[in-house]
Structures are given as structure tokens and as C-alpha cells.
Amino acid sequence: MRPLLIAAVITTTISLGAVSSVSQDRGAGAGVTRVAVIQAEDARAATAEQLQLLIRVASMPSSPLQAAAVRALGRLERPEVVTHLLPLLEAQAPAVRAEAANALAQCAGSEVEAVRAVRDHLLGRLVGEREADVRGAIAESLGRLPTESAAIAADIERALLEVASRTEVTKRVQTRAAGGRIVGLTLTPTKDIAVPVPALLGALRGLESFSRVRARAQQGLMPATVERLKSVALAAPAGQIGRRRGATGQSDEVRVRRLAILCLLPVNAVDADLAARAQEDPDAQVRRLAVSANAASRDTVGRAMKDEAWLVRYEALRTYGRRFQGTEGCGPVVSAVGAAVDHVAILAIDLLANPCKPEDKAVETLLDLAAGQDKAGWHRPAHAIVALAKAAPERARPALGRFLDAREWQTRMYAAKAAAQLADVSMLRKLAEDTHDNVREAAIAGLLKTVRHEADSTYIKALGASDFQLVMTAAGALAGTPDRAAAVPALMSALARLTALDSDSSRDPRVAILERLQELGSRDHADALVPYLQDVDPRVTASAARALTAWTGTPAASAQRPRAAGGAAITEEDLARLENTTVRVTMAGGGQFEMRLMVDLAPMSCARFATLVGQGYYNGLTFHRVIPNFLIQGGSPGANEFVGNSRSMRDEAGRSSQVRGTLGTSTRGRDTGDAQIYINLVDTPRLDHDYTIFAEVIRGLEVVDRVLEGDVMQKVELMTRRR
């Protein structure tokens, strides 16, 4: 068989003088410690000395810290660092080459020249690269890079397909062409089974990113790519077909099948045959992904609704609701409500908000559930009243009043959502005075939807709340208010009060207030806003500058005031202790799960988490955000997205992937971790490279699966790691 030629690329010459001057200086970083590298990274190389330290160590083949320094450079996300990283694609150690490939994609970002240089050098490095893990890292980085033309996108797709189909690149073919030197990448064709799993895994991760971009552009994948992905998706282990496992394995061999389907789903390339055949896969996540496809047949969906794994049943029910409920009725949905309080039952209740046939008795089912609010927890009645408000408004109205004085604040919050659906302004006004801020926030959102500025006095009052989410919602609700005279002083007062808290988590509500002030304020308020031009938060200073410019007609320059030094410190002893530590979570409703800290990949995140655990920070907090077949999120003192610890932490995103059971840091933008955490319920590669992973569940994943919205972490404690 003739060798296959990957797409040609034009080589780019980049000045590497800054690197070559240190690359031979193997002793320049002698005595540098792991702690020094970690702290330089955590400071985002704020000084020239810190940046040079990372560059020196990254260029030292003899240093055991070389890979860590390369990883640190990538986390700086600075295009100008690309020139220092490019030579490291030729480093002696495979681990360093792999980290360099990842770091280059991080640093290139969307800067056009940097992207071109990185893409050309990654394609060139595939030639002769025999290490499967490095080939995989290169392929993954190629798939993440922006493509400025259809021709380049086609080149990248062919390269990824070849890495996913062949063992290695064996030679380089060069020809001359106008504008540069064309380099073709030639690979050795082999049987599919011979493709090393690390290379295949990386190529699929790259294709998954690439496929999502193609889908957003309403474009598909090449037929050859689709066929290869289908063959990978159906390559279940020999002797495993037909065997069922409720738990999801984490082996790379299993992950490649999941990734293959994840590549096909965005471009609607999972056909009915693949969806049906994948239901024989021993892995529950493969079955789940396949039944989510738009082409999955009614028979396939019905079969999956009886699967032993809850995540498959959940996805099948969601697919039924989306595609078949409107024509076939709600019988299977009513049956799924059952008597249990679990993810599948709650989804079924939510789906009954949609039109059903009279014989399905959907409304009667919802009425019965809503009437049972004192039985077996709050979830089923609360979801039922919201669904009932949409499905049968007149029958929901008499039932809603019983929820006003419910013991659990979550029930009252859902009552506010039902009241908004019913346009019950009286109920919304009462709930807007609730004792819990999350209930007030939901009620204000409902008032904005129903009466808009007739409730401005309620929004203005809410600006005095301590909850960041409530203040942010209230500020947004005042958009277009006719009562500027009352709104502007209240907004100014709220801004000053939140600023005095000196909390990094106050960014979002303060920016929301400044945006509203820009609309409602005037030149008369300029003096009060000038101090915010020198706030510690760059988003706040920028918002203040925009408001002042709009008011005065004169450009206002922001000048962020750096926060006082004294950030987190860490020692070798700390690192050693963390490496011998696990974290155990005991849920108030029963059950425990245990997590291992990934100290090598995310040392500062591990240290911050362990410190908070040791202080008892998480004890008694909830998982406030539960999205089945995605993640659970918790650790907020306010039980919402916008309340967390007062100091943000740096991201430590890297090559590790967001697989089922991994624990990550929740953020609202780069480097804004506020101690809220999430646990992935399924593999979620679309979160890769954007969020820090710092731990993984090693025991009790079934307990994590059972977590419902509002469930409480009774105790979170540090444990000595079991050998």
C-alpha cells in the first residue's frame, strides 16, 4: 500500500535567539526547586525574574522540573512565549515534548501569527515522532487551534485522521512552491488495532474540539473521518459485547469509544445503525451518548429506557421527550415518574409540562405529586408545581398557595418559578420578601417578566442585600427604569458597600451595577465613580472607565491597583503531605465518597482545597447545581453560582481530561476560582483546557450519582492516604 500524505503546510521561520541563548546553559537553573517553579507559575510570572526562571528550567534537559516548567509557561497563555516553547518540541524527554505541544496551543490562543507558527511546527514535528503519547498531544493541540480558511481546516482534519489511523510518521517529503517550502507528512499505514491508544486518544480529543467548531459553522466532517470514527466507536473489547456494567470504566480503551461518538454527535453523524449497535457496548457512557443522537430509532430509545444504568435511562427519556413525546404521548414519561426520588423521576416530572394526551393522566399525576409536598422530600412536589403551572395553569393556581410557607427554601424558590409561569404577581411580591435570598432572586426574576418596572421599589430594596446573585439580578432588573432619582443613589450605595467587602467574588455584581449606572447616571455622579478607576479588579476599572467616558464625553483611563502582595505560599513539606492525603465527604442524607488529590498536576489548587477542608469550610454546604449526565456543583455559602470564598485562585488547566469522577474548580472566567467545586458525572471533554482538574473520586462514585439539588455535605475531612 502506498504511504499516505498528510496535507502540505508552509513552513515558517521564527527567530529563536532568545531561546538558543539559554538552551545550552544547562547549569543556569541549578538549585531551582519545585516550589520555586510552582510559585512563579502561580504568580503568572509577574516579574521578569520569574519568567526567566521558567524559561531557564524549561530549556534544561537535565532538570527533573523541565516538564513542570514547560507546563507553567503554557499556563501563562501569552503569545510571546511561543518562541520559547517551539524548540521544546524537539526535547529529549517525551514528556517534555508532549507538554510543549499542549503549552503551545495554550499560548497561541487566537493570535493569528502565533497560531500559524504553532500549527506549522506541530505538523512538522509529527514527522518521525515515534512516541504515541507525544503524537497524541500534538494531534490534540492541532484540533484546538483556530483555522482561518477551509483549506487549512481540511489540512488539519486530514492530519488528525492520519494520527488516528496510522502508527507513526516515517519521513518528510519536500518540494518547492511559491511562497515557501511545502512539507508533506508521510505515515505508515497499519491495521487499526496497531494504532497505539495514547496516539488514538489524543487524535480523538483533537477531533472532538475540531468537530464542535465545524458544527458551529454548520459544516460536517469528511466521509473518511466519519467512517474511521464509526469503526472506533464500535470496536468494543473482544468477548465484552452484550455484557452490562452499571459503573463506567476509566480505561483509555473505553474512553476512545466515547470520544469517537462525541466527535460524531455535533455534526449529526451518528446514524440509526450506530446508535442501535452501540447499545450492545459494555460501557454505559457509550450507550448513553449513542441514544442521545437525533437519528436514534424509537426502538433504540425504548430499549435504552430499560437500561440498568441510570445515566442511560435518563438520556433515553430525554431523547424520548425531545423527539417522540409530542406524537406518541406521555405514557412512558408517566411510568418513569415512579415512586423514587432520583434523576430519572425528576426529569419525567419536568417533561410532563409538555403537551400530553388526556388518557396519559399527566395532569392528574402532577396534581397528586404537588399535593404530596410533605412526603419524601421537596424535589418531586417542587418540580411538579412548576410543570403543572405550564401544563394546566388553572389547576395549578389553587395548589400554589400551599407552597408559600414550605419549610425548605428550595420549595419556595420553585414556587416563585411557578408563580412567574402563572403571572401571579401577588405571590411573587410575597416571595420577593422571603427570608432566603435565593427565593427573593427567583421572585424578582418573575416580577421582571410579569410587571417589569411596576416592581422597581422591590428591585431597589434588593440592592441592599448581602447576596451577590440577588444584587446582580436586581441591578439588571432596573434596566430602563423611569425612576432614576431613586435607582442611582441605591446603585451607588450598593457599589460602595460591596467594594468595602474586599471580596474577589463581588466582581460580577459590581460590574452589573456599573453597567446600570452607565445607563442611568450622569456627569453629576462622576466624582463618586472616579475612585473605581483604580480598583483591584480590572473588569471593575474597565467598567468604571466606560461609564465615566459615556457621562463626560472625555475618555477615562482605568489604572488597576494591584492587590497587596502576600499570596499563597507552599513548601516541599506541604506538597509531600498533600501527596499522602485523600479527602472524604460524608453526605447528610447518607453515604460517603473519597477523593485523591492530583498534586503533581494542580499543586496550588490542591493546597487551597485542603486548607479550606481543614478549616471546615465545606461542612454543611450544599450541592446547589445538579445537572444529570453533566456535573454536580457545590461549595457556595449562598448555595448559588455567585457566592464563594473571598479570594480567587489561579487556574491550573493542563493536559488532563474532564472524565467521569474528576473534581474541578468552578470559575466565571480565567483565574476566578472561588472555592466552589464540581464533579463530572460523565466524560466532558468540552471543558478541557478551560477548567482546573485537581482531584478524582476513588471510592463511592455511586454516592456522587445519587446527589440531588440541595443535598448537604455534612462533613468534609482530610484523611491519610491508604496504601
Q: Largest beta sheet, briefly?
A: 8 strands, antiparallel
Residue-averaged pLDDT, rounded?
90
Query: What integer value in Å does the Rg equal?
Result: 28 Å
Please count the beta strands (DSSP E, at least 2 residues each): 11
In the CATH scheme, the class of the domain at 4-220 would be: Mainly Alpha
Quaternary organization? single chain
- The fold-level CATH name of the domain at 4-220 is Leucine-rich Repeat Variant
| Strands ordered across the widest β-sheet | 6-7-9-8-10-5-4-11
The CATH architecture assignment of the domain at 4-220 turns out to be Alpha Horseshoe
Which regions contain 5 or more consecutive residues with pLDDT less than 50?
Answer: 1-28, 171-193, 238-249
- Hey, roughly how much beta strand do the residues contain? 5-15%
Could you describe the 3D structure shown?
This protein is an alpha+beta fold. Helices cover 49% and strands 10% of the residues. The protein has 34 helices and eleven strands. The strands form two sheets. An eight-stranded antiparallel β-sheet has the order 6-7-9-8-10-5-4-11. The protein has a three-stranded antiparallel β-sheet with strand order 1-3-2, with helices on one face. Helix 9 (150-165) packs antiparallel against helix 10 and helix 23 runs parallel beside helix 25. The protein is globular. It starts with a strand and ends with a strand.
